[in-house]
Amino acid sequence: MIDYVSELARLLRGCLPSSDELEAIRERKLRALISYAYEHVPFYRTRFIAAGITPDDVRGVSDLRHVPVLTRDELRAAGADGRAYGVDLAHGRVARTSGSSGKPLAVFRTPGEDRLRRALEFRSMRWAGLRPRDRIVNVGTTHAIPTSPLRYLGLYRLTLVSPSLPVDEQIARVRQLQPNVLWIYPTALRALLGRIGSLRSLAHPRTIVTSAEPLDPVLHQRVSTDMDVEFLNFYGSVESGRIAWECAAHEGLHINADCVILELAGDTELPDAGSSVIVTNLNSFAMPFIRYRLGDRCEFIQRPCSCGVALPLMKPPRGRDWDVVKLPSGKLLSPWGINPFLRELDSLQQFRLTQERSDYFVLQLVLARPIADHKLATLRRQLLSHLGEPVTLDIDVVDAIEEGALKFRTFISKVAAGGAPTRVRAAQNP
Ligand SMILES: [Zn+2]
After folding, report:
1. Where are the beta strands (DSSP E) in 299-422?
2. Ligand 1 centroid to 254 CA: how many Å?
3. With 60 as the cut, is the pLDDT of residue 419 above it?
């Protein structure tokens, strides 16, 4: 196992590793994780033996390719075998994934691992430019956030406003709290704006942090034209904690590469949709995640950030693996490809593309004011040309689009997409 106390101290000091230190930290933690999982976690031991590998075969990050990629279904089916011998569920924390895939997974961590996770979150917030005295209001998460010593000291004070409260109550709470950092899921932001029209009448935050879902350009533009506010994107998951955070240079998200190893599965058919992310969590031993397919689609940025931080960069996540358009010929396409055409509609407030059948699409638009029929006809022509196959596309201008309770999706497919990536492209961060 890793030395929790020194790792916790390292993260709480807020130090970021230099590029020289980074590989050494990753390899040390990875070797400890692989050995521990082999010795103490029945599921991984069985898996490694079946793949014909021992911990000696995984001495560094580039050797990870010998370990089979793991799916959420496999880990769920493993049950208690996916946890280390002797793990006591009563003494630790169990969190559940959101279940947007339809099947939530219970994720266990020990109190020590939970402290590491929070320390990593504080380090990420600090380097992203959030200040210890900021008043942060989070609208989006439904997880209880545990208290921490830093919050007892009044640092990084964070208040939760549940997105399951009536919208008027959420608005009243945010107005009363007057955050200078508004941490909000795009779905929740859209719901608030739908009621009050502009963010300006709600609060005057210095920064808006978005996470959990992709921020579509329509929503981003709608807020930016209304007020001068900095947007920061954070990326994380229940299984791996904080994966990446955006710095003030806004050139991408810095990957916490000393705590997670990210790999991308090769999927050349979808060049503008990113690739499926495979994560190895270097801080979780009681329930390890080794080469675990998260279901998100991401893309690395192969250049350093001008801020000087050595942690590698990635683009904001592009959505989920199942957000894929499958055309009648079997060709796969990213639904994000329609965004540039929609950006031309300056009165667009919200949209959703639904693939009803392989050859039938419906695009719903919510508009602030009516637009000329010929503009809609042009849009339809552009989109059909983009799809490039004989399909039918209906464009419906509607008053509102029905939202899910917690997640809004700009693309819905009623067609089984398939398209699972088969080849892993890069075994290391850039
Ligand atoms: Zn940077």
Report:
1. 300-301, 313-314, 325-326, 332-333, 348-357, 360-367, 392-397, 411-413
2. 6
3. no
